[in-house]
Amino acid sequence: MIEIDIHSKSFGDQHVLGSVSLTIPAGECVAVLGPSGIGKTTLLRIAAGLDTEFDGHVTRPERLAMVFQEPTLLPWRTAADNLKLIVGLTDDDADAALKRVGLDGKGGHLPDQLSLGQRRRLALARAFAAQPDFLVMDEPFASLDKALAAEMIALTRDLLKGARIATLLVTHSESEAEALSDRTLHLHGRPAVLTDAQAAD
Length: 201
Description:
By secondary structure, this protein is an alpha/beta fold. The protein has a single domain, classed as 3-Layer(aba) Sandwich (Rossmann fold), CATH 3.40.50. The chain has helices at residues 40-48, 79-83, 91-100, 116-129, 146-161, 174-180, 197-200, and strands at 2-11, 14-17, 20-24, 29-33, 55-59, 64-67, 134-138, 166-171, 183-188, 193-196. A hairpin with a 2-residue loop joins strand 1 and strand 2 (14-17). The two termini are 28 Å apart.
């Protein structure tokens, strides 16, 4: 169970987040919608433990994985070696992880030898290969064209179906939230607070 209870978050004199509280049980995907600049990434960084300078507390498991807007792959390592950065992952595990995301036979390729869609698939493979208890996704389909975004959303949905992972997805896209999440919340206001998406409309 992930428990996020933020009372406030500021950057200097700028009060970004107000009261933001939510729980995410294992196996549930929660999407947080909101416009650019509202504080979605700030919320995500707090949830993931990357930002500890806030008033409140977060309870999260140790096994956590993140998928960012950009794939954040090591360009000098092959696809398989990017996966094997995960402690304990064997060659066979890496091959299986690549196969799950449609990259069978691509293990020896460097990231710049892969297409954008393939790099996004590799980033997903790495996240799920870590077998996290908590998955945090920061607008992972941003900058993709409509067809590729739909392909990646379908792949992510299939991967989530086979795992009991508490997932937090932050996005500005209602269609992404509808396709992937079990529950959708809305971040709005100044400072931003979290409400049911329908209540915020």
